[in-house]
Amino acid sequence: MSKKLNAFAGLLALFSAALSSLLLVRNRAPRGFALWFPKLLAGALAPVTAVTGTVSALLGLAMGAPLTALLGSFSAVLSVLYVRQVTAPHDQFDRVFGPDWRRRIPPERAARMLPSRWRGWLPAGPEPRVDRDVVFWTLPGTGRKLLCDIWQPPAGVRPSGLAFLYFHGSAWTMLDKDYGTRPFFRYLTGQGHLVMDVAYRLSPETAIPGMVGDVKRAVAWMKCNAARYGANPEKIVLGGGSAGGHISLLAAYAPNHPDLTPVDVKGEDLSVRAVISEYGPSDLAACYYHTNQDKTTRNRPVRPAKENPGMARLMRKIMGDRYERLGFDKSMDAGSFLHLIGGHPDEMLDRYALLSPVTHVCAGCPPTLLIQGEDDLITSVEATRVFAQKLREAGVPVISVVFPQTDHGFDLMLPELSPSAQAALYDIERFLALMAC
To answer: Where is 198: in which H helix or E strand?
Structure first.
């Protein structure tokens, strides 16, 4: 029995140490994508490896197995430090909105918020009302319909009046609405917010300006239909992750820019109350170099975006009918800036500037919440810090939160348990509550 327990403790210690050690890895594109998912898993499961590491360390000490004890202790310490770092409090709300900002939030809504930046397992909350595949726009001259899901507060929950328009992460080329966001939306609707989950067009169907145009069409539609859903047209907040955060920032900062506004919504009121970006690129030239596209795309031919000979049959089998809708029929080159923008930064400086939110910063930009992992392999954290400072210098209310040892897409990995996902939600719910006041 002792031999079996000793072997079990050793395997547990080895597993915990191997997983938690990924927190120390700082991935860089393109090779870093191989460890991207495992690192996200390590962050989300840090509370688990803290426990398993401690248990294996104690067993190792009890059974005289020093290597087991060492590995278990290593895992436990790394995991505990990670949880403490990503859930550490900050004073940015006090500095940006004043020390009395909590008093502005109605007690009824404050009672439904997370009591701390991490609380273990996130409760599901009451069941929201969801209208799926709502057509919010038909592109002029075509039969192309743009779809969204409308998440309404559960019965018995008073509407806050705020409408949160969410745009999913995509690398501008893939995925869809209602993909990994249900725990997030359930929690927000439980606080009375309305959520509009938008399926915007992707590359190569449209370029980035067309995606920004779809954001603005969603804003125009919500302003016309706000009363129908119990929302205030003056309390519309844009937000999203990765590419969704990027196009949300562009739409919020340049609501009437002639090169980023479709003809069918020109003249409409496209202003918004605020914007939230989770790891959305603010400077596309910085993103280009951060992802090493100067090395990977400079001297090799780029395949057509719709050609994907390398995608595994297993992936097609897993995705089923959604294989093409999710964009997995495209080549990996579809997400390169050669496809998306048409060239390299040194060839198209003006184009990169036009499509970078940092270019459009001015005193009239709406309040902004930026959330990102310090180890993000796609969005440069240095560029995000420069972006946040430029917003502060322009007098824009901005909160910028950076989670140590955390990578791109952290909020979608086991959010019910993940310390970083819950810490992000803690800030988002308080930011939205203030915008609803």
So the answer is: strand 194-199
